[in-house]
TrEMBL record, chain B:
<dbReference type="GO" id="GO:0016491">
    <property type="term" value="F:oxidoreductase activity"/>
</dbReference>
<feature type="transmembrane region" description="Helical">
    <location>
        <begin position="82"/>
        <end position="101"/>
    </location>
</feature>
<feature type="transmembrane region" description="Helical">
    <location>
        <begin position="404"/>
        <end position="427"/>
    </location>
</feature>
<keyword id="KW-0472">Membrane</keyword>
<feature type="region of interest" description="Disordered">
    <location>
        <begin position="518"/>
        <end position="539"/>
    </location>
</feature>
<feature type="transmembrane region" description="Helical">
    <location>
        <begin position="33"/>
        <end position="53"/>
    </location>
</feature>
<dbReference type="InterPro" id="IPR001750">
    <property type="entry name" value="ND/Mrp_TM"/>
</dbReference>
<dbReference type="Pfam" id="PF00361">
    <property type="entry name" value="Proton_antipo_M"/>
</dbReference>
<feature type="transmembrane region" description="Helical">
    <location>
        <begin position="439"/>
        <end position="461"/>
    </location>
</feature>
<feature type="transmembrane region" description="Helical">
    <location>
        <begin position="335"/>
        <end position="354"/>
    </location>
</feature>
<feature type="transmembrane region" description="Helical">
    <location>
        <begin position="143"/>
        <end position="163"/>
    </location>
</feature>
<feature type="transmembrane region" description="Helical">
    <location>
        <begin position="481"/>
        <end position="500"/>
    </location>
</feature>
<feature type="transmembrane region" description="Helical">
    <location>
        <begin position="121"/>
        <end position="137"/>
    </location>
</feature>
<dbReference type="InterPro" id="IPR003918">
    <property type="entry name" value="NADH_UbQ_OxRdtase"/>
</dbReference>
<feature type="transmembrane region" description="Helical">
    <location>
        <begin position="366"/>
        <end position="384"/>
    </location>
</feature>
<feature type="transmembrane region" description="Helical">
    <location>
        <begin position="6"/>
        <end position="26"/>
    </location>
</feature>
<protein>
    <submittedName>
        <fullName>NADH-quinone oxidoreductase subunit M</fullName>
        <ecNumber>1.6.5.11</ecNumber>
    </submittedName>
</protein>
Length: 551, 539
């Protein structure tokens, strides 16, 4: 204590100011509670790995993760009920984090989908027990070389990678900040906080470990690449506006800035800095949402990663990244609307068409879903481009609807297994509807929702974004969207044909009976899909109330 | 709020579908009876709708209106006009016969798996289609209509792709060839996918138009938009209206189907079992022609008139082309399918002739075509199930071994060729008169369709029923009691409505007057009034 006081004394002497003038950072802990709870639990999870006996780690970790996510969700609900989604929305933590409607709505979706995703992480009944120990989808010991003696020893000893739970919590914490970040540095830090755990999670599959590790390396390299883009863009925009704060940049972009110092006056006329910087930042974000032409990583990573991780990533990353994209375009760059809209038009059209067309040729369920997620990113972009409150509302709704369909669909993929683990090749799904009608019917519901058939959440979401786009004057996007929906419908239907109208093969896969955990995940997915399809009004209202950004 | 009769009428078969699907695997027969019971109860409700409906009253009756998705401007609005009442009655009437005719169509060949329950699924899907079709006839909110118009594709798709002709597959199973069985399954799944893709693409294009309509009009209420159009408070740019019209019409023309978007129908009807084929052509496709009347004309009157010449030509091509191709068919079910394409040409021609006779005739035609095709196709299905072949050449002399079957087949055929005295004659005559009044040349050319209809039905009858008895036909059984129960009421209806169509026309005519006033059309001055009068008196 005394040493710090001495250090302060030295500093104040040098600055020549009294000690009480140094402003302590003002943090609104209550308003940041959702993130803080998750980070705290993640740190606790690391300690659990260190100190709790291996035997009971799994239970402690699962409990900790679910409890943390659930209480964080309760905190989000509490904040929203307290008016922080509307009148009391403001920017907390010294201008770093926004607490407003879109942020709270997206945090709620991320937390809920993380809870159901953690259920699939914790599933231990699908694989046959190894040496009398129940195993999950993750490697016994991720650090041991695939096929090595140490791996065999780890499997024999019944090790499991319970680290996945704290890793997932760290990722969730980053995702919670990402759509709420209100300055570019926070944005970047949040990006790294959720990306790094995801790279690791991709690498720890129990089966086909080499493929999993390859996926992780690809994801890491391309992810690092996009981070560099983002960071470079941030630097250029800072150079232009002299600030990383969203509000300050927006003022300079709009030309409403009041206090112009000589340095700013010198740079703010340089549009090249702004345009190139803005484009680079957008590139980094579009990479995360998986938009064409920055989508190359998606199929490989989705295919190689452990399926529960794929489901989590496909849902939550997309939500967080679209949240950040929305905030950037609606808060920071509305003044550049006429510059970015044509570009985003092009990206949206390319994404919708390429995702749908390439998906037609896929033969692996996970790759198919990966390309379908690209096409969906295109549909969501159509809503983003609307630049209206309806646009935000429709994107928020779509993200909520899409997350649960995705997690549910990947959860079903984990059930269909043969001797080599999950049977993801489409030919193996032939006749599934005759062997296990219920599983096939559930998967068909998810596929119909992806295809946007009425009475599913997919239709309500698609209708919402297309309507917003049409009202925003982007009728062409609607027509392209409708065409690519038709193309996309073809391959979803093909899977349904395969499941229901083909004869089952003699050596076909079996459907494992999951524990109540995965069942819950799938049941929640189906329930949300149908409820949002038939009676979306309540959730549209919610999204509508949450559609105003604080600035 | 009064009793929501329309909602209940549509919901009852849906409830029946869920209950039927939930019947345990071993209780197949119970599932069938349950489905039949629900379809009959729905028929009773449909009759109640028809009784409660006052022909001279307001345009839309028994209306219901509830908030649904306010953010989309969507309300849950139901209401029926005379056209809707007639088609709901047709749907509710045909479903029990379809269920009864398909009684054994979905029995599992052998007990492959305890959990695979095709029988329950088959009847549940039929009831689900019924529910969705009925609500499509009731919806007066464009969005609500669209949802069920699209959603009914899914159960239809499973009905076509999942259930083939028992006879053909069992024959090949008997031949122990496996290969042909797989081939049949592949063709069936091809037909199902073709059906789905055609209709889905149509539906998605309509979706773009539905969104466009919302952008222009701000809500989806058919009554509000029609009223605003009539009062001139809602202006649409000419091009916008035409594009939106085309978006809607395309979807309905695929569904109806109109040449050149018809090619899915022969595949679907050929591969599906006879009762499902009837469900497609007699029930589901009617939604397409019904929607042309209700939505295309009501929402886009000017564009409808603009497109009329082109549509009439396409309808004419459908009439002649469908009939010509039917003459050349070797497959009984495909023949009926092409005949249906020809008939849908007549219906669409009647709608777009924009005369009261034409549109009344078209509506009547929808009902009569449903009954006559059901009669012909279901008997054809019984015939096919006995011999295990769909090829005309495999039959001959059936009337000597199975006279009742042959007789009912003949009556179904004669109804299809619109023999005077049977119901379809009245409607076909009205359509032709209505068209002739405004477009004499087209009316005259369309009569070729009648001549060709006589050709394909009579040749079909001659080749299958008359002549020397073929070896394989020699042991053919006549109709069983269940089958007679299916056919007899349909034939009674065909004769009854042929002699006395007034109960139907009484309901339909006021509705048609409203539709005509939507497009600001009046009947043209009668140039051939004397003949028309005589014609009506003659029937």
């Amino acid at each position: 204590m005394s040493t710090t006081a001495a250090a302060h004394g030295l500093l104040t002497l040098a600055a020549g100011e009294p000690i009480d003038r140094i402003p302590a950072p003002h943090i609104e802990y209550a308003q940041l509670a959702p993130t803080l709870i998750v980070v705290g639990a993640a740190v606790l999870g690391v300690l659990v790995e260190a100190f709790v006996p291996r035997r009971s780690r799994y239970y402690v970790q699962v409990f900790l993760a679910v409890a943390a996510l659930a209480s964080a969700f309760a905190a989000v609900v509490g904040l929203a009920a307290g008016g922080y989604g509307g009148d009391k929305a403001h920017i907390a933590a010294m201008g770093a984090v926004a607490v407003d409607g879109p942020a709270l709505f997206l945090q709620g979706i991320i937390l809920l989908s993380a809870i159901v995703a953690v259920f699939t992480f914790a599933e231990r009944r699908l694989d046959p027990a190894a040496h009398g120990n129940r195993v999950d989808s993750f490697a016994a010991q991720a650090a041991s070389v695939p096929g090595s003696e140490s791996e065999k020893a780890a499997v024999k000893a019944g090790f499991t990678t319970t680290e996945v739970f704290p890793l997932a919590l760290f990722a969730v914490a980053g995702m919670l900040i990402f759509p709420a970040a209100d300055d570019l540095l926070t944005l970047f830090v949040a990006l790294e906080v959720f990306s790094l755990p995801l790279y690791l999670l991709c690498a720890v599959a129990r089966r086909q470990r080499l493929m999993s590790q390859e996926a992780a390396v690809k994801y890491f390299l391309l992810g690092a690449f996009s981070s560099a883009f983002l960071l470079f863009g941030i630097a250029l925009v800072y150079g232009y506006a002299g600030s990383v704060s969203y509000a300050a940049i927006a003022d300079v972009v709009d030309g409403t800035v009041t206090k112009i110092d000589p340095a700013l006056a010198d740079t703010m006329g340089n549009d090249a800095l702004l345009l190139i910087g803005g484009a680079l930042i957008l590139t980094g974000l579009l990479f995360k949402v998986g938009a064409v032409p920055f989508h190359m990583w998606t199929p490989d990573v989705y295919q190689g990663a452990p399926t529960p991780v794929t489901g989590f990533m496909a849902a939550a990353t997309k939500v967080a990244a679209f949240g950040a994209l929305l905030r950037l375009l609606y808060v920071v760059l509305p003044g550049l609307r006429w510059d970015w809209r044509p570009v985003m038009w092009g990206v949206a059209i390319l994404t919708m068409l390429a995702g749908a067309v390439i998906a037609v040729t896929q033969t692996d369920v996970k790759r198919l879903l990966a390309y379908s997620s690209i096409a969906h990113a295109g549909f969501i972009l159509a809503g983003v481009i609307a630049t209206s409150a309806q646009g935000v509302q429709s994107v928020l709704f779509y993200l909520g609807a899409y997350s649960f369909v995705t997690i549910g669909a990947f959860a079903v993929v984990t059930l269909v297994r043969d001797a080599g683990g999950e049977a993801t090749h489409l030919s193996k799904w032939a006749g599934l509807g005759r062997r296990s009608p219920l599983t096939a019917a559930v998967f068909a519901v998810f596929l119909l929702a992806f295809a946007g058939i009425p009475l599913t959440s997919g239709f309500a979401g698609k209708f919402a974004v297309f309507k917003a786009a049409a009202e925003g004057g982007a009728g062409v996007l609607v027509v392209v969207g409708v065409i690519s929906s038709a193309i996309a419908a073809f391959f979803y239907i093909r899977v349904i044909v395969l499941m229901f109208f083909s004869e089952p093969k003699a050596d076909g896969p079996t459907v494992a009976v999951p524990s109540p955990l995965t069942m819950t995940t799938i049941a929640v997915g189906v329930a949300v899909t149908l409820v949002l399809g038939v009676a979306p009004q309540y959730f549209l209202d919610l999204a509508g109330q949450a559609s105003t950004f604080v600035r | 709020m009064s009793f929501p009769l329309l909602t209940v009428t549509a919901a009852l078969p849906a409830v029946g579908a869920v209950l039927t699907a939930a019947v345990p695997a071993a209780r197949r027969t119970a599932a069938k009876w349950l489905a039949l019971l629900f379809s009959l109860a729905t028929l009773a409700l449909a009759v109640l709708v028809a009784v409660r409906f006052e022909p001279g009253g307001a345009r839309y009756q028994l209306t219901e209106s509830r908030a649904w998705i306010a953010d989309f401007g969507v309300r849950y609005e139901l209401g029926v006009d005379g056209i809707g009442v007639a088609l709901i009655a047709l749907t509710a009437l045909l479903i029990p016969f379809i269920i009864l005719a398909g009684w054994h169509d979905a029995d599992p060949l052998e007990n492959k798996s305890q959990r695979w329950r095709p029988t329950q699924g088959f009847f549940a899907l039929i009831l689900m289609v019924e529910a969705m079709v009925i609500i499509s006839f009731e919806a007066t909110d464009v969005f609500l209509f669209y949802i069920f118009f699209e959603a009914m594709l899914i159960p239809m798709y499973f009905l076509i792709g999942g259930f083939g002709d028992r006879a053909t597959s069992s024959r090949s199973a008997a031949a122990a060839a496996g290969g042909t069985d797989e081939n049949a399954a592949a063709q069936r799944s091809y037909a199902a996918v073709k059906f789905l893709l055609y209709n889905l693409v149509g539906g998605l294009i309509m979706l773009a138009a539905v969104i466009g309509l919302y952008v222009v009009a701000g809500n989806f209420s058919l009554q509000e938009i029609t009223a605003a159009r009539a009062a001139g408070t809602l202006d649409m740019a000419t091009n916008t209206e035409r594009l939106l019209f085309l978006g809607f019409f395309f979807a309905f023309a695929v569904k109806a189907p109109l040449w050149p978007l018809h090619t899915w129908l022969p595949n679907a009807m050929g591969e599906a079992t006879a009762p499902v084929a009837v469900l497609i052509t007699a029930v589901v496709d009617k939604v397409g022609t019904f929607a042309m009347l209700r939505f295309c004309l009501g929402l886009f009157p000017d564009a409808s008139k603009w497109a009329t010449p082109a549509i009439l030509v396409l309808a004419l091509i459908s009439i002649v082309y469908g009939a010509l191709v039917a003459v050349g068919q070797r497959d009984i079910k495909r023949l009926v399918a092409y005949a249906s394409i020809s008939h849908f040409g007549f219906i669409i021609m009647g709608i777009f002739a924009m005369t009261s006779q034409g549109q009344s005739g078209a509506t009547l035609y929808m009902v009569n075509h449903g009954i006559s095709t059901a009669a012909l196709m279901l008997v054809a299905g019984f015939l096919i199930s006995r011999r295990g072949s769909r090829l005309i050449a495999d039959y001959g002399g059936v009337q000597k071994v199975a006279p009742v079957l042959a007789g009912t087949f003949l009556i179904g055929g004669l109804a299809t060729l619109s023999l005077p005295g049977l119901a379809p004659f009245v409607s076909e005559f009205l359509v032709l008169v209505g068209t002739f009044a405004r477009y004499p040349v087209i009316g005259i050319i369309a009569t070729i369709g009648i001549v060709l209809a006589a050709l394909y039905t009579l040749v079909l009858y001659q080749r299958t029923m008359t002549g020397p008895v073929k070896e394989e036909v020699r042991t053919m059984q006549d109709l069983r009691l269940r089958e007679v129960l299916v056919v007899a009421p349909l034939i009674v209806l065909l004769i009854g409505l042929g002699v006395y169509p007034k109960p139907l026309t009484q309901i339909i005519n006021p509705a048609v007057e409203h539709t005509l006033s939507d497009v600001h059309e009046k009947d043209p001055k009668p140039q051939v009034a004397v003949e028309a009068k005589n014609g009506e008196a003659a029937k």
